[in-house]
Amino acid sequence: MPDAIFHFPPNFRWGVATAAHQIEGNNTNNQWWAWEQQEGRIKQGGKSGLACDVWQHPEVDFDRAAAMGLNAMRLSVEWSRIEVAPGRIDTAALDRYRAMLKALRERGIEPMVTLHHFSDPIWLADEGGWLNVNIIQYFTRYVEQVVRALGEYTNLWCTINEPNVYAYQGYMAGVFPPGKQDSRMAFAVIRAMLQAHAAAYRRIHRLQENAQVGLAHNLRFFDPARPRNLLDRLAAWVRDLGFNQTTLRAVWDGWWLPPMGFGPALPLRHTLDWFGLNYYTRDLVHFDRSARADFFAQTMHDPQAEPLDGNYGELYPQGMFRALKHLARMGIPIYVTENGIPDADDDQRPRALLLHLREVWRALQDNVPVQGYYHWTLTDNFEWAEGWTLPFGLIELDPQTQARIPRPSADLYGAIAQGNAITPEMLDAYAPELRKVLLPG
Ligand code: FCB
What residue's CA is closest to ligand 1, atom 4? Predict the structure, then answer.
């Protein structure tokens, strides 16, 4: 494609990312299902219900992804379906996932399998979840079953999705189950998840010689609201430490930082074949004397910036480049394992998609080893505490009728994947206002 303005490397993975509980439907045996039944937990009383009905009809969306020309898909397997009671494996569920991965392969789509994406079996939640002293054994035992069953169809494993978000939302903000507000617990949960990641890394490699194992981290930026104000800078630094650096240092250098701990975390070293970046947005941070429980930091969205739907934050594509450069120091391959925006009428998404991908391209020009990009997400889905109010799909979904209507972004993303490039024609067709920005002169 000679007139392309941004070429991507050969074999670049163009995918979408999904998560079992958000799309499968009727995941009645996990802690989220129970949580959704409680009054006031989910925005507008939303329930996952049938979700996108993917458990029963996965090929509907697999066909659409294939027709778009995607060559990759990130999906998670649901622990509560696979291990219905401690140590009791439902082989039919594993067979179902085998069939799904096979169906993806048949469509030329390489699966990346996430082993834990926010949902826990009820039996585990009842035993204290990730604070249970046996959690590492529980997790690795389950992982072993999955790898034995699915290893024929994939070697690309993401152990755990966003320990920081799972812990922050569930144990500090209290908006995910189990609804606690206790920062000590939150850091203990992240710590347990990172230890479980390391143990799973080793177990998977023992079972599968060519396994490629990584972790997905939600890297959010925290910038001082008043850049010259020392207290704002300190508050932003503290936020970044708690949300990002504690995790990053543990898996990069094998070192626990406060408040997660202090000292060597040696078993965590060398437990990443690749790193997964989930990038969405950034916050501005104000020092606030009264916000003790939040480490004196009050976050806000930049009032000057373009807001996203659903009060989701600001459109901040530059953060993609910043994040990739930051992670490049690890010296291992990187996947963008999630990136997207909620946008029902798709009046921002094409532009957001192009701008974020331009930042990925810039990072590639700087030799950051980005191997692929998984857009969040294929169809609108159940967005956890936000229920059905955040339409992140390239394809619009009506959960009542299960009708799917591709948004313009789906065509754009398909064209990018097929061409392995962004062309001036795409700008003209989907975001003409970007010509000036991306094609100066
Ligand atoms: C991420 C989650 C994913 C989805 C997006 C919008 O933090 O990993 O499941 O909810 O946010």
Answer: 383
Atom of ligand 1 nearest to the CA of 161: 8
pLDDT tens per residue, range 144-182 = 999 999 999 999 999 999 999 999 999 999 999 999 999
CB atoms within 10 A of CB 144: 15
The CA distance from 98 to 111, in Å, is 11
Which of the listed residues 114, 278, 356, 377 should we mutate to test ligand 1's pocket, taking the one with most ligand atoms within 8 A of CB?
278
Taking the centre of ligand 1 as the mean of its atom positions, its distance from the CA of residue 312, in whole angstroms, is 12
Provide mean pLDDT across the span 271-282: 98
E strands, 120-205, where? 156-161
- List all residues whose CB is within 6 A of at least one atom of ligand 1: 19, 22, 161-162, 165, 218, 278, 338, 376, 383-384, 392
Q: What is the pTM of this model?
A: 0.98
* Residue 35, token pair as written in the block: 């949580």
User: For residue 168, how far is its CA from the centre of ligand 1 (angstroms)?
Assistant: 13
Q: Which among 338, 368, 221, 201 has a CA at the least distance from the CA of 276?
A: 338
Compute the radius of gyration of the chain from its Cα atoms.
Answer: 21
pLDDT of residue 441: 65
pLDDT of amino acid 1: 46
Virtual torsion, Cα 141, 146, 149, 153, nearest 10 deg: -150
Report the Cα–Cα distance between both ends of the chain, in Å, rounded. Answer: 21
Best residue among 384, 389, 392, 394 to mutate for probing ligand 1, ranked by most atoms within 8 Å of CB: 384
Ligand 1 atom closest to Cα of 162?
8
Distances (CA, A) of 163 to 117, 191, 242: 9, 9, 12
User: 425 to each of 3, 23, 406, 415, 428, how far by Cα in Å?
Assistant: 9, 33, 20, 10, 5
